[in-house]
Amino acid sequence: MAVPSIFPPNSDARVMGIKGEMFFMKHCKDKGLKSRFTKNRMQRWDVTVREMKVDVKTIRTNYPPKSSYNVDLSSAQASLDSDIYAFVFYNEKNNKFTIAGALPRDDYLRKAILKREGETERDGSFTYACDTYIVKVSELKPIEEVIKTMVMP
Predict the structure, then answer these.
(1) What pLDDT was estimated at residue 1?
(2) How many Cα atoms sit within 13 Å of 40 on the Cβ side?
(3) Structure pTM?
């Protein structure tokens, strides 16, 4: 059974998440990777790519992803059920989705910095609302590279 997010998304965020998943799946198909949506929404991943379970995270922003940006995963959403975390940015200024990249779950958690609830950054203008694992966009890899390293030919 899925553990709910501590921040239940509003309907607009859910729709944006689904659109991000659809964009990710199309990207996979364009790269020649067999992919499909998860049939049971109680599972903790969104898309299956060559039998690997991928949890897709859509990040809303006003800018395209930069290598210095962080992608984040709340500790409540870090699932042992997922094989891969993938990140999609949605630029609200130009209504455009961009694939930031992906990492196998174990690599993500090994590279991640754990920010504790209440920690601040950006000179105190941002406070973490829960324990969160962050990784720089520069650490992410293209999904086709991640899949290639995880699936035997």
Answers:
(1) 34
(2) 6
(3) 0.87
